[in-house]
Amino acid sequence: MEVWFTERQTDAVTIGLKVKAVLWRERTPYQELAVVESEAYGRVLILDGAIQTTERDEYVYHEMIAQVPLAVHPHPRRVAVIGGGDGGAIREILRHPAVEEAHLIEIDERVVEVAQRFFPEIAIGLNDDRTHLHFTDGIAWAREARDFDVILVDSTDPVGPAEGLFTAEFYKTLYEALGPDGIMVAQSESPFLQPDLLRRVVQGVREHFPVTRVYLASVPTYPSGLWSFTWGSKRHEPEDLRELEAPWRAHLRYWTPEVHRAAFALPPFVKELVDG
Would you please indicate which residues are annotated as catalytic (active-site) residues? Predict the structure, then answer.
């Protein structure tokens, strides 16, 4: 008998993965959490029926949400991730020797615990001495935060606890939490399947950040496979790459300076969404 996991990505689109085994399933105080072993993508972390990360393609998302701003900020000492309980963004942040503090703000402690158990190569940075874990609401944390160099919004889809992470008011809070060179990046869903959400995120970021851009990456298991990120910074343009130390790039599998620059070259249909 074949067992399949099906994610309903929209009312009209699904993705299906053939499952070898269900490794974990529970209802946390916030959401349904599951881990399955898939035939095509290895282990898969699922929250409320939506794929969050897979062993096979996770590096694309995590490198592009983290390495893009960190390759530009001149002195990324204090970096925070709101969401991202699997630890992949933290892993990427800690590749940079300049980073002194990496803060993970995750509302659901069980996501972190399950990731550490079933995805140790992704969650490896959560045990680093530079990592500080905050099990709290990201919006409340951001209101009290100050002088961060980079903040990443590695959120789930805009439902439930994550809904408030997609508002203009929240982006204003992030602006105030960042230092004078500050950069924020937020995942902003698929331009094919969630165009209205992408437009809303860009408009919200643009209200508060003088430099607002969108860039793209290919993440096969995310809706449509084409994923967007929205960049907001106080002064730095995304093409202003700093001189980078070679060692941190040794294990990267997607990000390069060339990919970085090309990611901001938007197809006309995305430019229409962003500029409209």
Answer: 154
